[in-house]
Design goal:
With about 120 residues, this protein is of the alpha+beta class. Helices cover about 40% and strands about 20% of the residues. It is globular and about 35 Å long. Part of the 50S ribosomal subunit; part of the 5S rRNA/L5/L18/L25 subcomplex. Contacts the 5S and 23S rRNAs.
Length: about 120
């Protein structure tokens, strides 16, 4: 059974997912945060397909392993933006996945915006 803190996050996540839906024109940028790493993927919910994914474990980002977790999150955002632009995706819907928009989640979003994504 998840901890009380995790239960609250899952309740927030369910509430957010009722409203946030990715389409082919504007897919969903979903974020998952663990204690050590951060993961992001761009999902087209109409076809249930992951279009682009990146994480702090990816080779191009992991090469910067001496950076802080927040700096790595910003690099993941920039990497996912670069991959999206290569596939012709410029607009996304940001899904914070129940996490508070602060710290690493905000850094990833700022990195994605700096990389050229619009949300």
């Amino acid at each position: 059974m998840p901890s009380p803190k995790e239960q609250i996050r899952l309740r927030r996540k369910a509430s957010i997912r009722k409203r946030v839906h990715g389409t082919t024109e504007r897919p969903r940028l979903s974020v998952f945060r663990s204690a050590k790493h951060i993961y992001a993927q761009v999902i087209d919910d109409s076809t249930s397909a992951t279009l682009v994914a990146s994480s702090s474990l990816a080779k191009d980002v992991a090469a910067e392993s001496e950076k802080t977790k927040r700096e790595l999150a910003e690099l993941v955002g920039t990497a996912i933006a670069k991959a999206c632009l290569a596939k012709g995706i410029t607009k996304v819907v940001f899904d914070r996945n129940g996490y508070i928009y602060h710290g690493r989640v905000k850094a990833l979003a700022d990195g994605a915006r700096a990389g050229g994504l619009d949300f």
